[in-house]
Amino acid sequence: MPTTLKKPVSSKSLGRSRLRDIALACDVSISTVSRALAGQKGVRDDLRQRIFAAARSAHYPLPNMVQGARIAVFASKAAMTDYGRTQFTWHVLEGLKAAAASREIEVSLVPLPDPDESQSPLTDVLDNSGILGVLLLTVDDMQVMRRIQESGKPSVLINSDDPLMRISSVSPCNRSATRMACDYLIDLGHERIGFVMRPGRPTIRRRLEGWRDALSEHGLPCPDENVISVEDWTPECAERAIGERLDNGTLHVSALLCAADSLALGAISALKARQIACPEKISVMGIDNLPISDLLTPRLTTMHIPARELGETAVDMVIELSTQGERLVRRTELACRLIERDSTAATSMAATSTAA
């Protein structure tokens, strides 16, 4: 027998059916749902919020309701003091603000309180129905992540991630960036590569893992003594730490890979102060590609971190969450790229000694 084809369901009919599901979930009429989603008057604010939540759960295509809305950006104390150190936060916020402005969204920057301080700023934002979503910049506090997740407020972590995958996040691909940097130095003939970092954050631990990945893959040693820890991300801290190694003869490397451009600046200063030529004696490489890296002498070879794009991507993600709901928590990593300049050079097969 011939197969009887059913009449296709029109998108209009499907939309009407989904409106009915939303109305049933909220115990209101379809007309009330339509008015709420269209932003019309005559619907209580709490009811409107319930209707939007039900619509997101049903993956109903919502109208553009983001214009005039507000995003709260919580920044850790480390991020708030970043301006005088690496300027990474500044570039992230520039991208974030530009993306928000293009969509006519307001941005409020709020310092995240310490655990022993009042948590009222965080509570106020989470309880505020006028906040479209929350972005958390350079935040690793698991308790804060838990509170955000439990609130149900659309939220995205920037330059961090949730180990328990409760909240979506966007960050640079730190491990691969450092791996690529080391591969580049190894291709130049360097076999003893020091890694300069401030310990602590998971993102920096991933950069350390990338350093180890590359050296291990090439069969090169990666002793702990070649990891140079600094107290802070300032050039002065790096200059002091590397200077001490140079002065006591314990820096046995032909290249220094620094976890930030600010540390690379300090490394170059330490070498200059001791009349050790860069890159002829020791190559120096950074990670960031801040504007100053192209103005140094020598001009700094570095890995470009897409800081501005992190902010832009985070805004796109939180808008998607607020209008469509979160179908699946995801961890987004943005690729980094090599910027080759003058502070790195090929070395001979015989490793150069810093004492030479």
Textual characterization of the structure:
- With 356 residues, the chain is α/β, with parallel strands linked by helices.
- It folds into three domains: 22-55, no CATH class; 70-172 and 308-335, 3-Layer(aba) Sandwich (Rossmann fold), CATH 3.40.50; 174-306, 3-Layer(aba) Sandwich (Rossmann fold), CATH 3.40.50.
- The chain has helices spanning 11-26, 30-37, 45-57, 77-80, 88-102, 120-127, 142-151, 174-187, 202-217, 235-247, 261-273, 307-324, and strands at 70-75, 106-111, 131-137, 155-158, 168-172, 193-197, 227-229, 255-258, 283-288, 301-304, 331-334, 337-339.
- The strands form two sheets. A six-stranded parallel sheet has the order 2-1-3-4-5-11, sandwiched between helices. It has a six-stranded mixed sheet with strand order 7-6-8-9-10-12, with helices on both faces.
- The longest helix has 18 residues, at 307-324.
- The radius of gyration is 26 Å and the shape is elongated.
